Amino acid sequence: MKQWQLQEAKARFSELLRSASKDGPQEITVRGKPEAVIISASEFQRLKKRKPRFVEFMRSSPLKGVELDLTRDKSPMREVDL
């Protein structure tokens, strides 16, 4: 991620926007510390897209309908020296 000092970002704002669109997120620093990140509109839309609830996520699993063997193994536990 490219870093821009605030004064440089203000002076070259058009280039900053093009870089965010073409090269990905651009970080803006103030006095050497990260202060903000500029991202493209498409990346913003992707990030703010509604995420499915957990139940919806589980229902859409490709393993839906697969039978699972959930019987517990009855063999005795092994001895462990502590």
Task: State the gist of this model.
By secondary structure, the protein is of the alpha+beta class. It contains four helices and three strands; from the N terminus they run E-H-H-E-E-H-H. The longest helix has 11 residues, at 13-23.
Describe it for me?
With 82 residues, the chain is an alpha+beta fold. The chain has one domain (2-59): YefM-like fold (3-Layer(aba) Sandwich). The chain is built from 4 helices and 3 strands, in the order βααββαα. The chain has helices at 6-11, 13-23, 41-48, 54-59; strands at residues 2-5, 26-30, 33-38. It has a 3-stranded mixed β-sheet with strand order 1-2-3. The protein is elongated, with a radius of gyration of 25 Å.
CATH topology: YefM-like fold
- Total beta-strand segments: 3
Structural class: alpha+beta
What helical percentage do the residues reach?
25-40%
Number of domains: 1
- Distance between the first and last residues' Cα: 49 Å
What is the class in the CATH system? Alpha Beta
Cα shape: elongated
The H/E string reads EHHEEHH
User: For the record, what is the CATH homologous superfamily label?
Assistant: YefM-like domain
Read across the widest sheet, the strand sequence of neighbours is: 1-2-3
SS element count, helices: 4
Main pleated-sheet profile: 3 strands, mixed
What is the second-level CATH architecture?
3-Layer(aba) Sandwich
Strand content: 15-25%
Instruction: Report low-confidence residues grouped into runs of 5 or more.
Output: none
Return the average pLDDT rounded to an integer.
93
